[in-house]
Automatic annotation (TrEMBL):
NCBIfam families: competence protein ComEA helix-hairpin-helix repeat region. It comes from Hippea maritima (strain ATCC 700847 / DSM 10411 / MH2). InterPro entries: Competence_ComEA_HhH, Endo/Exo/Phosphatase_dom_1, Hlx-hairpin-Hlx_DNA-bd_motif, RuvA_2-like. This is Helix-hairpin-helix motif protein. Transmembrane segments: none annotated. Residues 42-61, 71-90 form the Helix-hairpin-helix DNA-binding motif class domain. It holds the Pfam family HHH_3. One of its GO terms (cellular component) is type II protein secretion system complex. GO terms for molecular function: DNA binding.
Length: 105
């Protein structure tokens, strides 16, 4: 009887721990996207399908002129719709008004 009870308690604890892990994962997957206009090569390298040369090309392209839509990245050599979709999972175009306001003293 004690053994059955111990197994049930351990099973319950296991299920609870799985629920905790899944809720932590869900919370982390909703993190805020980064501003593509401020992206670094290192950040872009985390995107599936982006290597060093594509990351450098994106940073160079964005530094020339601030982009207003993510579709503008399609002008970068080697960036197609599939790669753009991967980039959009981590980055977005943030408007000037989405910046936190600075207090003037």
């Amino acid at each position: 009887m004690l053994r059955v009870l111990s197994i049930r308690i351990l099973s319950f604890l296991f299920v609870v721990s799985l629920l905790n892990v899944s809720s932590i994962y869900a919370a982390n997957s909703k993190t805020a996207k980064l501003d593509i206009n401020k992206a670094t090569v290192e950040e872009l390298l985390k995107v599936k399908g982006i290597g060093k040369s594509k990351a450098e090309a994106i940073v160079k392209f964005v530094k020339k002129e601030r982009i207003k839509t993510m579709d503008e990245l399609l002008k970068v050599k080697g960036i197609g719709k599939k790669t753009l979709k991967n980039i959009e999972e981590m980055f977005e175009v943030k408007t000037e008004s989405s910046k936190p306001s600075e207090k003037k003293e």
